[in-house]
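Below is a filled-in request sheet from our internal design queue. Each sheet records the structural input a requester submitted and the sequence that came back. We keep these sheets so that new team members can see what a complete request looks like end to end.

REQUESTER: design group, bay 2
PRIORITY: normal
MODE: inverse folding
CHAIN LENGTH: 305
BACKBONE (tokenized):
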């Protein structure tokens, strides 16, 4: 029987050390523009949980080391391998005999170190975590849709209403420059349920590449893809409509729309180190896309509707 718990004083010491442990160069990912709660939900979505993610959702507003410590008991340890690749946990807890202590230290590390956490088999995002992610995205959309409140400028005293000369040292003549370095979305693949109810399309996405996460799309680099291929770093976009049966006018409009979408997905996949393939049902559709984007990798799946 594997150990799942440790004493309260040791757990507090462990979480304190994990929270203050300095990452090695190159281990830190790009800063996330989302809230810490949303970042925690995204990270937790990669792992299997025995309680359907309820503990994660409850603790998601805490820092990751605290969440990891409180929810470690709910992690499906039969499907996760925790490896101390940096050897910092082994050094920090050289006197600890229980392997669970080092395993918790690895899992609670603030940064996500490549190769430290290995999940066995495909992971379907826990229902409670998926609901939390969906709720955050809905709230964020509503906030973006709200009109900006317009405030009246404060009235200056009469004595101060004389125009100030250009270059004067008094007054804010020039506004601060905007942020010039946009933050990149995460390149970690996050499985989410297929967006639509198009059964033939979803079956093609699951079976043809084949999909590493059957029944799921995947978010990578801020874009949504139909599949992540099993065993390789290849993202897929699947098109199953009968393009060659459309009138010329409709074909042109369809290609314009797809080129805009595929250009974004191609850029996101390359930026994150993935190959990108488009699967279409007909040769006519393939040739039309290649004519517009010659570097695009397009294959004929033969999937029917």
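RETURNED SEQUENCE:
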């Amino acid at each position: 029987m594997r150990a799942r718990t440790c004493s309260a004083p040791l757990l507090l010491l462990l979480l304190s050390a994990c929270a203050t442990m300095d990452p090695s160069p190159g281990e830190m990912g790009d800063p996330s523009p989302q809230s810490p709660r949303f970042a925690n939900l995204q990270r937790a979505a990669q792992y299997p949980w025995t309680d359907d993610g309820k503990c994660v959702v409850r603790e998601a507003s805490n820092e990751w080391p605290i969440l990891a410590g409180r929810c470690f008991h709910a992690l499906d340890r039969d499907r996760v391998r925790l490896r101390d690749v940096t050897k910092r946990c082994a050094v920090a807890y050289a006197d600890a005999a229980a392997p669970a202590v080092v395993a918790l230290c690895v899992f609670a590390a603030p940064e996500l170190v490549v190769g430290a956490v290995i999940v066995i088999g495909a992971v379907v995002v826990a229902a409670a975590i998926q609901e939390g992610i969906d709720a955050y995205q809905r709230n964020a959309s509503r906030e973006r849709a709200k009109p900006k409140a317009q405030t009246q400028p404060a009235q200056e005293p009469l004595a101060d209403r004389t125009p100030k000369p250009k270059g004067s040292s008094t007054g804010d003549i020039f506004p601060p420059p905007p942020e010039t370095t946009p933050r990149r979305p995460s390149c970690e693949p996050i499985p989410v349920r297929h967006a639509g109810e198009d059964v033939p399309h979803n079956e093609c996405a699951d079976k043809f590449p084949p999909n590493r996460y059957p029944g799921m799309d995947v978010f990578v680099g801020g874009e949504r893809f139909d599949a992540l291929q099993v065993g390789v770093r290849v993202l897929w976009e699947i098109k199953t409509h009968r393009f060659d049966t459309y009138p010329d006018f409709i074909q042109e409009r369809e290609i314009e729309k797809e080129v805009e979408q595929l250009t974004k997905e191609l850029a996101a996949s390359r930026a994150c180190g993935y190959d990108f393939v488009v699967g279409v049902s007909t040769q006519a559709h393939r040739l039309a896309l290649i004519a517009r984007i010659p570097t695009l990798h397009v294959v004929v799946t033969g999937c029917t509707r």
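SHEET NOTES:
- Residues 1-33, 164-174 have pLDDT under 50 and may be disordered.
- Residues 8-127 form one domain.
FILED BY: M.R.
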